[in-house]
Specification:
Shape: globular
Helix content: over 70%
Radius of gyration: 21 Å
Low-confidence stretches: none
Number of strands: 0
Largest sheet: none
Mean pLDDT: 80
Strand content: under 5%
Order of helices and strands: HHHHHHHHHHHHHHH
Number of helices: 15
Length: 338
């Protein structure tokens, strides 16, 4: 995983966005196929093997592309530690620590889960559903490199700043919305063991809600990188992890639904805490936060979520009408927000 991150960073540095896109597409397809078939056949061991195969494919394809870019630009590997010390201190070190601290918190919440009755079954359900979040995140992650490259310029169009925050948010809502309204599409990918679990539907909806918040926060993460706020990003992730562990620890029932709820709380409060800081520093345009169109988007999305989370709509025609109305309304609101 570390090597794949280095390769991805190199491709971004070469501005080989086409190669990066191809690399991510190959990785996404291979990871999905490997996890799907190997998990069905070998269970937990198959899941681990699937991740290994997907990562190997990413490293192999990425390594080939990096080699081509180095040959094209007449570059070779060189190590000048002292000259890079400032970058390592202000960017690389906090970036590594930010990424490294995520896994211990995830291990912690997984440990809390498996130490309960039916803990492994509930963790299995959550892990199966979270894969679809990972696929959505992979799609929007392709926006990181080109947007960061544009944003590091001293003079950038205000419209680019808006696109940075709005694009992943909009993509997330358009992908998440069909899943919220028609969760039965998961019947194609998951066995009845997962579909018939009493926590399946509520867990899925909470994961999709959390995904939308993550994608909204994705634009903020790019702002941290561009403005050299990586140490702030580190403490932001630390706060996220503490909220995640403590919220799940104090929940009476520990199952897939409450685990998804703990992740939702962690991302929600983390986002609510860091946004005022950026507004104060005038890093985020205030018009994107208090705009009536942004407020309308959140009101409509939360209303859809609460309706589908609290009530089961048996009439498929009613669901389709609500879905079409929501898509149309979101399209109007995002257009006005731009």
């Amino acid at each position: 995983t570390v090597i794949s991150s280095v390769i991805t960073g190199c491709l971004k540095g070469f501005k080989d966005f086409k190669g990066l896109l191809i690399c991510n597409i190959i990785y996404g397809i291979s990871l999905f196929l490997a996890l799907y078939f190997l998990t069905i056949k070998y269970g937990v061991e198959g899941t681990f093997l699937g991740f290994c195969i997907g990562t190997f494919v990413l490293v192999l394809s990425g390594g080939i592309l990096v080699g081509k870019n180095m040959y094209k630009n007449h570059l070779c590997f060189d190590f000048k530690f002292k000259e890079e010390l400032k970058i390592l201190k202000n960017f690389t070190l906090p970036a590594i620590l930010t990424g490294a601290m995520v896994m211990p918190f995830k291990w912690g919440i997984d440990t809390l889960m498996v130490n309960n009755v039916n803990g492994y079954e509930e963790l299995g359900l959550y892990s199966a559903l979270i894969l679809f979040q990972s696929l959505i995140m992979m799609v929007t992650a392709t926006l990181d490199a080109p947007l960061i490259t544009i944003m590091v310029k001293k003079q950038i169009d205000k419209r680019i700043e808006r696109l940075n925050l709005i694009t992943p948010w909009a993509i997330g809502i358009y992908i998440v919305l069909p899943i919220l309204f028609f969760p039965s599409i998961f019947n194609i990918f998951l066995s009845e063991e997962y579909i018939n679990d009493p926590n399946f539907y509520s867990t899925l909806l909470l994961i999709m809600l959390t995904t939308t918040i993550i994608l909204y926060k994705q634009g903020i993460a790019r702002i941290m990188i561009v403005n050299s706020l990586m140490w702030f990003s580190f403490f932001s992730n630390l706060l996220w992890g503490l909220i995640l562990i403590f919220s799940f620890y104090f929940m009476e029932n520990k199952n897939a639904e409450t685990m998804a709820y703990a992740y939702f709380l962690a991302y929600l409060f983390n986002t609510l805490i860091i946004i005022p800081f950026f507004i104060k520093k005038k890093i985020i345009p205030l018009s994107l936060i208090n705009s009536k169109w942004a407020i309308f988007i959140w009101i409509l999305f939360i209303s859809d979520f609460m309706l589908l989370y609290s009530y089961e709509i048996p009439n498929i025609l009613m669901k389709i009408l609500l879905f079409v109305f929501s898509i149309g309304a979101f399209t109007l609101f995002f257009y006005k927000l731009l």
